[in-house]
Amino acid sequence: MSTPTAHAGMEARVPLSRDRVLRGAVELADEGGLESLSMRRLAQRLGVEAMSLYHHVRNKQELLGAMLDIVYSEIEPPSSEGDWRSAMRRSAISFYRALRSHPWACSLLASAIDASPLRLRYMNAVLGQLRSAGFSAVSTHHAYHALDSHIVGFTLWLLPYLAFAKRQPDYAERFLEELPTGELPRLTEHIHVHMAPERPGDVDEFEFGLDLILDGLERMRAAGLT
User: Fold this and answer.
1) SS3 142
2) pLDDT confidence of 167, banded at 50, 70, 90?
């Protein structure tokens, strides 16, 4: 069984590179959030002196921007192959899964970090797919923001619930015990649905909302209202 000291020793034997620095930072943030990430802790993780990190990133701001690029590298841009709706759906789901894998990324998206070329190319691909599908520049503007708001907004809404459920797994049961179920039958029903184990064929909540948006956009396009 390896110890942190042994792990740091093994890391130190691998030459330090920008990729190692970024991957180490992503691992730290994935484990404990952005608040757990500092140049000192990152250096300890990699088994190096903190000052050596600055040969690969100028400062923490650049580090955060490069970490966000790693998240964007996991997103599937909408393909020009096939129909626009399927391509947009696959891309949106891959974006959502990347944010779920790296919960800290949502806060960075709303920060003052400059958009990198990789992020700009992703945005351009989404906009281009909508324009190629026949949406006007104005409709594309609205569609892009509707999709982006659902992806990022749903994830931001979900993450605190997941963290809370992990800390207090029996909270829903205790809440139901105190709930006046006779007065609030629909809320009671809703909580039971939340608590029910997933079954094959169950609709994913994120995909349910995504399909509502895409179906609405397709109806606009088919009706020539774009």
Assistant:
1) helix
2) confident
Local structure of residue 34 (DSSP, 8 states): G
Q: Which residue has the higher pLDDT, 10 or 214?
A: 214
The span from the CA of 57 to the CA of 37, in Å, is 14
Structural domain harbouring 15: 4-57
Asked if residue 114 is part of any domain, the answer here is yes
Structurally, the chain folds into a number of domains equal to: 2
Q: Residue 167 is part of a domain; what is its CATH number?
A: 1.10.357.10
Q: Do 26 and 96 belong together in one domain?
A: no
Q: Looking at residues 145-164, what average pLDDT do you find? A: 92
Which CATH number do you get for residue 42? 1.10.10.60
Written as six digits, the tokens of 11 are 């890391």
Q: Tens of pLDDT along 24-58?
A: 999 999 999 999 999 999 999 999 999 999 999 99
Q: Are residues 153 and 46 in the same domain?
A: no
Position with higher pLDDT, 13 vs 195: 195
Task: Decide: residue 67, CB within 10 A, 0-12 exposed, 13-18 middle, 19+ buried.
Answer: buried
Specify whether 46 is located in the same domain as 90: no
What whole-number distance in Å separates Cα of residue 161 and Cα of residue 163? 5
Helix (H, G, I), strand (E, B) or coil at 221: helix
Start-to-end CA span in the chain (Å): 61
